[in-house]
């Protein structure tokens, strides 16, 4: 049986099964399996019992529009305030590269919504109900922080971004 005949074969099996006819399997002289609706007269054949097909309900139709904001529990689309409050945009962190990202959100986070945090396009936390994320040992340089509010199916409701500059202290002992 070739790849081209496989779909035809499957259609025939399905049609035969739906018509409640028996399917028989035999092996030809070249060792290939042969399926027919009648037992072979010149070769041993055995009836084939097909397992019942598994049917699944179709998934719910969820609109995929990213342009319309999902209403909050107060009925307004999106959140009135959604921003990264710490570290402030274009601010500099001067320490060992550790800081806490905090978002301000008004009204409060909707029950079905979660927050995700990204640094330089890489997901670092979430989706979670907590409005903050602790960053440890961040490399020196300028980094883009993004926070997203997502609904229960992962659809992005609202996004905010902030830039932070990390300066790490380097201690070099004096030369002997």
Account of the protein in words:
- The chain is mostly beta strands and 176 residues long.
- It has 2 domains: 5-48, no CATH class; 81-168, Immunoglobulin-like (Sandwich).
- It contains 1 helix and 11 strands.
- The chain has one helix spanning 5-18; strands at 23-27, 33-36, 45-48, 81-86, 91-95, 99-106, 114-119, 122-128, 132-135, 141-150, 156-168.
- The strands form 3 sheets. Strands 5-11-10-7-8 form a 5-stranded mixed β-sheet, with no helix packed on it.
- The protein is elongated, with a radius of gyration of 31 Å.
String of helices and strands: HEEEEEEEEEEE
CATH first level of the largest domain: which class? Mainly Beta
The proportion of residues forming helix, as a percent range, comes to: under 10%
How many individual helices? 1
The oligomeric status of these chains comes to single chain
Q: Per the principal axes of the C-alpha atoms, what is the gross shape?
A: elongated
What kind of sheet is the major sheet?
5 strands, mixed
Nearest-angstrom radius of gyration?
A: 31 Å
Structural class comes to: mainly beta
Summary tags:
five-stranded mixed beta sheet, DUF4124 domain-containing protein, Immunoglobulin-like, 11 strands, elongated, 176 residues, mainly beta, Ig-like_fold, three-stranded antiparallel beta sheet
Layout of helices and strands, plus pairs?
Layout: H1 5-18, E1 23-27, E2 33-36, E3 45-48, E4 81-86, E5 91-95, E6 99-106, E7 114-119, E8 122-128, E9 132-135, E10 141-150, E11 156-168
Parallel strand pairs: 5-11
Antiparallel strand pairs: 1-2, 1-3, 4-6, 6-9, 7-8, 7-10, 10-11
């Amino acid at each position: 049986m070739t790849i081209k005949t496989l779909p035809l074969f499957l259609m025939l099996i399905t049609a035969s099964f739906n018509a409640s006819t028996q399917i028989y399997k035999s092996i030809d002289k070249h060792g290939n399996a042969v399926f027919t609706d009648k037992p072979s007269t010149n070769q041993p054949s055995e009836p084939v019992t097909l397992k019942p097909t598994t049917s699944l309900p179709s998934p719910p139709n969820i609109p995929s529009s990213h342009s319309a904001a999902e209403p909050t529990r107060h009925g307004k689309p999106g959140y009135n305030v959604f921003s990264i409050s710490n570290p402030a945009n274009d601010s500099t962190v001067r320490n060992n590269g550790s800081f806490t990202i905090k978002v301000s959100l008004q009204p409060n986070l909707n029950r079905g919504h979660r927050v995700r945090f990204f640094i330089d396009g890489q997901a670092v936390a979430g989706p979670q109900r907590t409005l903050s994320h602790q960053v440890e040992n961040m490399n020196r340089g300028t980094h883009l922080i993004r926070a997203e509010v997502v609904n229960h199916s992962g659809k992005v409701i609202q996004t905010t971004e902030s830039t932070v500059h990390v300066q790490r202290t380097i201690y070099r002992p004096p030369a002997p």
